[in-house]
Specification:
- GO terms for molecular function: hydrolase activity.
- There is one protein chain.
- The protein has 325 residues and is an alpha+beta fold.
- Helices cover 20% and strands 27% of the residues.
- A hairpin with a 2-residue loop joins strand 16 and strand 17.
């Protein structure tokens, strides 16, 4: 079982079948090393390793090249979400074409605008947001995270469950009120997140003025498949030019570059840090590109298989299971 990703190593969280999860060093040729034993720290987790990330990469790089270490084949081990974050910050409306598609898809039946007029108006809004430096960020729940190969249960109440594959930045050290110029110094690496969303409950039906309901539409258990790996930032040449691809039952639905982001990772991390303190292991989800189910008129259902990949970060594969089936 190979584990293709950029660079000499990545971080993951693995376990033997029914065993206790452990932090692991992964090599591209499909080997895994239990970092608790390799570093002599029985209570080590991926998150505690990230808490001292400034000193970790050289040691991990040396271990990756040590053929005498206690390597074991990745095949046969269970792959969990690579980290358990304390906080998840999610960027909304951050891909230009995606936002345009959503604006057209969510038009009310009595909207007098043509599709072209709606597209032009939302494009002007996005240009203004970029000029005023106003990303849109909300909070997600760690309990929504699941592994990159785990089944995703579609709740019975979710009428329009949709996929949103995203690049996620993993924070290395506490970040508060950092500048855009220094923001990437606080990023340990990158991973893949699929930010599932029930489109039917995005907006409150009882009172439009309340606006969006992110708790309801995005935070069911398992609605954020994460991983498989954390690839160190130093192994990714340009996070602003990675291909984000999602296939549904083998058919390509999303296939876009992170170049289409309105606000890049540095701007998002800096913006979040002006209000909140980011902590080691926290996730910054950067938004999803065009090609969601609401655009295709095809939402998720029982038996669907999603395969998500981002350049240099590997592949996740999850199967949808209807609640109660």
């Amino acid at each position: 079982m190979a584990a293709p990703f950029a660079g000499p190593f990545a971080l993951g969280t693995l376990s033997a079948p029914d065993g206790i999860p452990f932090p692991a060093l992964i090599t591209p040729d499909g080997r895994a090393l239990d970092l608790r034993a390799a570093l002599g720290e029985r209570e080590l987790t991926t998150r505690t390793l990230l808490e001292r990330w400034d000193e970790a990469p050289p040691r991990l790089n040396a271990l990756a090249g040590d053929d005498r270490a206690a390597w074991q084949p990745l095949k046969g081990l269970r792959v969990h979400a690579p980290v358990e974050p304390r906080q998840i910050f999610q960027s909304g409306a951050n891909y230009r074409q995606h936002v345009i598609d959503l604006e057209v898809a969510h038009r009310s039946p009595d909207d007098p605008r043509t599709a072209e007029e709606a597209r032009a108006e939302i494009a002007a809004v996005m240009d203004r947001r970029v000029a005023e430096d106003l990303p849109y960020v909300f909070i997600g729940l760690p309990s929504a995270i699941t592994g990159p190969y785990d089944d995703v249960v579609l709740p019975s109440w979710a009428e329009k469950p949709d996929w949103e594959l995203e690049l996620a930045a993993v924070i290395a050290r506490p970040a508060h009120q950092v500048s855009v110029e220094e923001a990437l110094e606080y990023v340990a690496g990158y991973t893949i997140a699929n930010d599932l969303t029930d489109r039917a409950t995005v907006f409150r039906r009882d009172m439009k003025a309340i606006g969006t309901d992110w708790l309801r539409c995005k935070n069911a258990p398992g609605f954020t498949p994460l991983g498989p790996w954390i690839v160190p930032a130093g192994s990714i040449a340009d996070p602003g030019d990675l291909r984000v691809t999602l296939k549904l039952n083998g058919d390509t639905m999303q296939d876009e570059s992170t170049k289409d982001m309105l606000f890049d990772i540095a701007r998002l991390v800096s913006y979040i840090s002006q209000t909140s303190q980011l902590l080691p292991g926290d996730l910054v989800l950067t938004g999803s590109p065009a090609g969601n189910g609401i655009h295709w008129g095809r939402l998720l259902r029982d038996g669907d298989v999603m395969e998500g990949s981002i350049t240099g970060l590997g592949v996740q594969r999850t199967r949808c299971v209807g609640e109660g089936t």
